[in-house]
Specification:
The protein is an alpha/beta fold and about 210 residues long. The protein has 10 helices and 5 strands. The termini are far apart.
Length: about 210
């Protein structure tokens, strides 16, 4: 039997997952957690084979919960099941120690097979998550933003338009666009919203 701990802050989601998992002969649900702190505690107490982890939860989010679980029990198998596949979640979750990354639109049968594979030690990534990992792996190494690009990044994070940034830095709007394009390539991001998130998550902007 594969013993599973379900971690999700929505009761209806937990009920749905439990309902499906318990129809499978080789799965048994040993517990449920409605927040990250409870997930960490129950993972320690129950020592499940697989921890099905949502990322957006109160108290402690799923990424931090995963980090704490893996720190305490490195062999733990965490499978992320979330609605989000953006860079601010995929890479941090995998770096925290998650073995697999799935989206909640996954078919029930596919979820079951993914849990079995994760339990065997294999990693399963939703195509959107795999694309972000591949982009990170193939990004040029050592390509650091220039001082001017960092200035542009800070102003993007403050919500300024390209025209306003150009006026602030005394450069043309075309030059601003060139700096933003360069930043996106160097940081492995896809749009200015992700640039702003990057600046905030890395402490560049308060």
């Amino acid at each position: 039997m594969i013993r599973i701990l379900i971690c999700d802050d929505h009761e209806i989601v937990r009920r749905g997952l439990r309902g499906y998992l318990e129809t499978e002969a080789d799965f048994t649900v040993v517990g449920e957690a409605s927040d990250g702190a409870a997930a960490v505690r129950l993972a320690s107490e129950l020592e499940p084979d697989v921890i099905l982890m949502d990322l957006v939860m109160p108290e402690v989010d799923g990424i931090e919960a995963t980090r704490r679980i893996i720190a305490a029990r490195p062999q733990a198998c965490v499978v992320v099941l979330t609605s989000f596949a953006d860079d601010s979640r995929v890479l941090p979750a995998l770096r925290a120690g998650a073995r697999s990354y799935l989206l909640k639109d996954v078919a029930a049968e596919e979820l079951g097979q993914s849990l079995r594979r994760a339990h065997r030690g294999e990693s399963v990534l939703h195509p959107a998550a795999a694309q972000r990992v591949l982009r990170e792996m193939t990004a040029p190494k050592g390509a650091e933003p220039t001082q001017r690009e960092l200035q542009v990044l800070l102003l993007v994070a403050q919500g300024l338009s390209n025209q306003a940034i150009g006026a602030r830095l005394f450069i043309t709007e075309r030059t601003v666009k060139a700096h933003i394009t360069s930043l996106l390539a160097k940081l492995g991001l896809s749009d200015r919203t992700q640039l702003a998130i990057h600046a905030h998550t890395h402490g560049l902007v308060k």
